[in-house]
Amino acid sequence: MNTAGKALAEFIAEGTEIVESLSKDLLVLDQQRGLEPDPELINGIFRAAHSLKGLAALFGQERIAKLAHQSEDLLDRLRLGKLSLDDQVLDTLIESLDALQSLLAEASREEASDALGERVSTLGTRLADLGTVSAASDEDPLDRLELSEQVRAVFTEYEEHRLRENVRRGVALYRVRAAFDLSDFDTGLTELNARLKPLGEVVSTLPSSEPGGLSGIAFDLIFGARVSTEELTQKLEGTPAQLFALVTRPAAAPVTPRAPAAPPVPPAEAGSTPVRKTAKRKPRTPKAPAPQTPPDEPLAAASSTMPTLRALEAVSSGEASSSSPVRTLVQESPTPRGTRSEGESARSLTQTVRVDIRRLDALMNTVGELLLIKANLQRMVENVRLDAGVSLSKVWGQELSRETRQLERKLDALQEGLLEARMVPVGQVFDRLARLVRRIAREVGKEIDFIIGGGDVELDKLIVEELSDPLMHIIRNAIDHGAESPEARQAVGKPRRARISLHAEQKGNHVVIEVSDDGAGIDELGVRELALRKGLITDAQAREMSRRELLNLIFLPGFSTASSVSELSGRGVGLDVVKNNIGNLSGIIDVWSERGQGTAFHLTLPVTLAIIRALVVGVSGRTYAVPLNSVLEILSVKPSEIRTVERREVLDVRGTTLPLMRLARVFGHPESHPERHFVVVAGLAQERLGIAVDELQGQQDIVVKSLGGRLQGVRGISGAADLANRRTVLVLDVGALLEEGMSTERRRA
Question: Low complexity bias located where (predicted)?
Fold first, then answer.
């Protein structure tokens, strides 16, 4: 990759990271819809947009820089209270995020389409014109705060706005004075801020006019508290902080009409209210030591005149949701951390992984120890070479054995460290899907609660990216086919809002992801009739199929129960692709559905595909590797213990019937007739299958490589791997074999 290519890749990686951070914060803001927005959150989104603008300008990405700048302008008006956060503003911000994502995608391909350019231009105009101006009042709340003009003069416009909002809402305000030693004042100030933030809002931090001692420095923090004075005092124990209350005069009593019949104030009068001075951007001046404030009142005396902390005006969740077609709910808090185009993908634009430097340091230490072992081994080999003809001593053998064990331990540590470095939380994909659900639900006019859970479960970065598109297909189907319209749900006694859940859970060496809805469910009889009409199954097969087998027909290519083709689905493509993609990841997909109650898809996936432990087996002189994370147990059975039930070979294992598959027969090898068979019991999700092999050759760590384009479609094989003796063997695709085993009987019928 040349220098320009590397620079572009770095920009895409960093830009994608900022957009994902913006997406996560906007998701939180969406969850708080109807409540007083968190100023820290809005300020964080503003800073992220500002960072993206600067980054794009630095790399010459003018379209991205311009849209980020327009988004930043809107966010600036929002954080300064010049606009109110309403649904239209929030929706447009999320739409601009989608546009930024599309611009990044085009930038990564070094393209610039006119269609996207026009969409971005229209969106930029909307961002500039959007928003409702916050209601102005005749009185500036700051005039009621006993704070000198000299102190107010050093506030930035944002700080002045936040202070005004705190006064307007009746929040108790304090000046927190703290002195620190010059050698570690930054650490002390950070710790003090960390204690204060959960208790309220740190509006401003100013150098104090009161000296901090001969070798110290003092700060004044203007703080709006959400807790009582007693609790605040208690929480600040052990810190150098001193608390002084800022006195606020009561607001002037509102003018009440003398008689019920009194006419209301004409709108024209309200409109003639002079524009507040905060509407003008205040020139930012360098912060100077705060001038001496008037003598502070004793805290106890001040508290008697302080306004009582008033609870925020919280709107009930039901009221908040009623006006929102889509509501995203995250069961765990996020970790602290237009027009739909065809072929869009929820896949990330970059393959980079952010790795903690401490993890890299640990890997470097391991590599250093490996180099020491290598030096020891070289020394031992050199000694043997110099003493050629002398028989090797027992001590030399013991030393070699010790070095080998050390080598094995360090290699295990290195492998584990590298695998951990590849792991990322699945929440990265979940957050991107939340935006998708939001937009699609609006397009089809449905009201949906999207519940996310288990986002902190970690998977290999490669699997997470490959998983994004299958999940997108399933969720689109859930919105289009599963969730009913609000009116249809109310007619059958269901809540007006449909519920779609996306949940991840780790189970041993696998991760299970469930996508479920409480919609209409799948009509298995309709599936049966459609499959017969399309000639996908025969009448005889249909009569013998269980309900579960009927439901699994939806994964056949070209199968769709949709009566019409919509923009979202109905063309019979999607679920077969989903199943193939999951199979390519050595996973398996299962479906459950109940008419009138909903549908659930369960995706069972391995944690990683990079390096896996495998069981090496032999069949008819050939060697295969079976991923050990799919092996439940190994049995040794006599040929007489194998029974045939309805033309299918089975085994009785502890009272249960286990379907049996002879591996030699699957791949067309000549079958041997040993006195005993080894049966590898493999399982994924709820499926179990016995795989008969001739011999077991041991276990080994393997790196699975793709078979390439021509051999990639070979059923039952997921790839190839080199063994320790440099032999290349094929790796079994357990998921595909399980499905093959389960469907054998149906095909024979």
Answer: 313-324
- Which tokens belong to 713? 């479609």
- Is 343 inside a domain boundary? no
Q: How far apart are the first and last CA of the chain?
A: 56
Structure tokens at 331: 């069961």
Burial 138-176 (b: 16+ CB within 10 A, else e): eebbbebbbbeeebeebbebbbbbbbbbbbbbbbbbbbb
Q: Is the pTM of this model over 0.70?
A: no
Summarize the confidence of residues 570-593 as an average pLDDT: 76
Determine the Cα angle at 41 with ends 35 and 46, to 5°.
125
3-state secondary structure (DSSP) of residue 219: strand
- Structural domain of 376: 358-421
Last residue of a domain, one of 399, 421, 443: 421
- Between the alpha carbon of residue 317 and those of residues 33, 321, 334, the distances in Å are 9, 6, 19
Residue 305 domain-assigned?
Answer: no
* 112-167 tens-digit pLDDT: 888 888 999 998 888 888 765 555 556 777 788 887 777 778 888 888 888 888 88
238 is a domain residue: yes
Residue 646 corresponds to which tokens in the numbers above?
A: 């309805």
Same domain, 451 and 586: yes
Query: Do residue 517 and residue 535 come from a single domain?
Result: yes
> Which tokens hold the place of 328?
């995203």
Q: d(Cα 609, Cα 467) in Å, to the nearest integer?
A: 13
Q: Which of 245, 275, 306 is the last residue of a domain?
A: 245
3-state secondary structure 664-687: HHHCCCCCCCCCCEEEEEEEECCE
Total domains in the chain come to 5
Question: Which residues have a Cβ under 8 Å from the Cβ of 655 and sit 6 or more positions away?
Answer: none
**∠627-636-683 over CA atoms, to 5°?**
35
Tell me how far the alpha carbon of residue 423 is from its chain's centroid. Answer: 13
